[in-house]
Design brief:
457 residues; mainly alpha; Growth Hormone, Chain: A; 19 helices; 76% helix; globular
Length: 457
């Protein structure tokens, strides 16, 4: 059979790209924090719910990989899309006013979301790659990934801009008046609009995944209890072997520990940006445009990171990251009106650098036969740290909230919740220093004779 002229003539490739767009284009992302707060939850509950999400991914990451081998990858991708429908429907239709009910619903939402992330992790990509190998040319895979990433970026810019606009009741009412409608909506109505639009995308994802055809597997795969037990045993053996390799390879352990240290602190700030933007006097309608602008940093950051790994050693890049992280966190803690957007942009940029550095250095030294398992360890470590800082942040906010109203130099007393949030953010530079300093000292001593720590390129 002749090879198709383009990888995009393969049905599964087109469906893979479409699924990635539908699954990741969440209209509520630019208002993520304030969405939870406007439903009636506290910032402590928001932090704990994100911890639940991270721990769910941590627990499900490796088992779902084995599950894909046992029941098939298509089944996992289909399950992912239906979990997305369930998680969105829950918060679309939950009634307001009962704090216990709302927290319980959001708790289930975070568990379902974490399971969906874990189930989708790599399964859709594996189907697409196997389809390309069977019906096309695997040398076209970088082209497929490139197109997929660009289309996802375009979709993200559109969804974030639209989501923030329709979340803001003032903007929505102006749009209604512009089209000649006398209807007036409130925040309690408009806050559900981004969720409803994301629910529609989830339904679309279900339709797309049901049309996927799983490539034929080798005879004997997933063919009985013996094969299932063999898969589970092999997965466990590879996981233990990769864990031992990481522990006995100081540079690999350093990459994961340093990456985890930067990632969990920076990611905490990123998930809290919409509440932060409110407190530095930015209008809610601008959140989507800001989020879209932050996404555009992804065009610049890979080239900067590439130049840094060529020009500087891993040790130098660790110090660059530490210095810039402390500067960004300190400037963020100042809550400068409007200008507070600049340190947030630096934090987004640093997250992209950290992702590039950890991937580059870890892939450079990891043996091919256990690369996927080692990378899964990295993902689990990152999510575990993020879950733990969520708990610490929630406890800190609760402690500060009990102190009563706060004040700023140029403003009257703040509500206790806002004052506690500002106070908790102010602790993050000190927390980062307390985490990074001992890690730098320990690995400086442990790697002082290693060539990897001084190797460039």
């Amino acid at each position: 059979m002749p090879k198709p002229p383009s990888p995009f003539s393969i049905t599964n490739i087109r469906l893979f790209i479409l699924f990635r767009i539908l699954f990741n284009s969440r209209f509520y992302y630019p208002v993520f924090t304030i969405l939870f707060l406007d439903y009636g939850l506290t910032i402590e509950q928001f932090s704990l719910l994100n911890t639940v999400w991270a721990i769910t991914i941590f627990c499900a990451e490796v088992p779902t990989g084995a599950l894909a081998d046992i029941i098939g990858r298509k089944q996992l991708v289909v399950a992912t899309s239906f979990l997305m429908v369930a998680e969105m429907a829950l918060i679309c239709f939950v009634p307001l006013g009962n704090g216990t009910l709302i927290f319980s619903v959001f708790f289930v939402n975070r568990v379902l979301s974490g399971l969906a992330e874990a189930l989708a992790s790599g399964a859709d990509e594996a189907i697409a790659y196997d389809s390309l190998a069977a019906e096309g040319d695997t040398r076209d895979w970088p082209r497929v990934l490139s197109v997929q990433m660009r289309l996802r970026s375009v979709a993200a810019v559109i969804s974030m801009a639209v989501g923030a606009l329709i979340y803001d009741p003032v903007t929505t009412n102006r749009l209604l008046a512009w089209i000649g409608s006398d209807l007036q909506v409130t925040q309690q109505i408009t806050m559900r609009y981004p969720i409803f639009l994301t629910l529609l995308l989830a339904v679309g994802a279900c339709i797309v995944t049901l049309r996927i055809r799983e490539p034929a597997v080798d005879p004997g795969q997933r063919s009985g209890p013996g094969a299932i037990l063999g898969t589970i045993n092999e997965t466990g053996r590879m996981t233990l072997a990769a864990g031992r390799w990481i522990f006995h390879t100081p540079f690999a352990l350093a990459v994961i520990i340093f990456g985890m240290a930067y990632d969990h602190i920076l990611r905490l700030i990123v998930t809290l940006t919409s509440q932060y933007f409110r407190l530095i006097a930015l209008p809610e309608a601008s959140f989507g445009l800001i989020g879209a602008g932050m996404s555009l940093l992804g065009i610049v950051s890979p080239k900067v990171a590439e130049q840094m790994v060529q020009r500087f050693s891993p040790a130098a890049n660790v110090l660059w990251m530490a210095a810039l992280t402390l500067i960004a966190l300190s400037a963020t803690a100042a809550f400068f009106p409007y200008l507070g957007l600049l340190p947030i942009a630096l934090i987004f940029f640093l997250m992209m650098l950290e992702s590039f550095f950890s991937s580059h250095y870890l892939n450079r030294i990891t043996p091919s036969h256990q690369r996927a398992t080692v990378l899964s360890f990295k993902g689990m470590a990152f999510n575990l740290a993020y879950g733990l800082i969520g708990i610490l942040f929630a406890l800190l906010v609760a402690e500060l909230r009990s102190g009563g109203p706060g004040t700023t130099a140029a403003a009257p007393p703040l509500p206790p919740a806002d004052a506690a949030f500002i106070g908790a953010i102010g602790w993050l530079p000190w927390y980062a220093l307390a985490v990074l300093l001992p890690i730098i000292v320990v690995f400086t001593l442990r790697l002082r004779h290693s060539e990897e720590i001084r190797r460039r390129g």
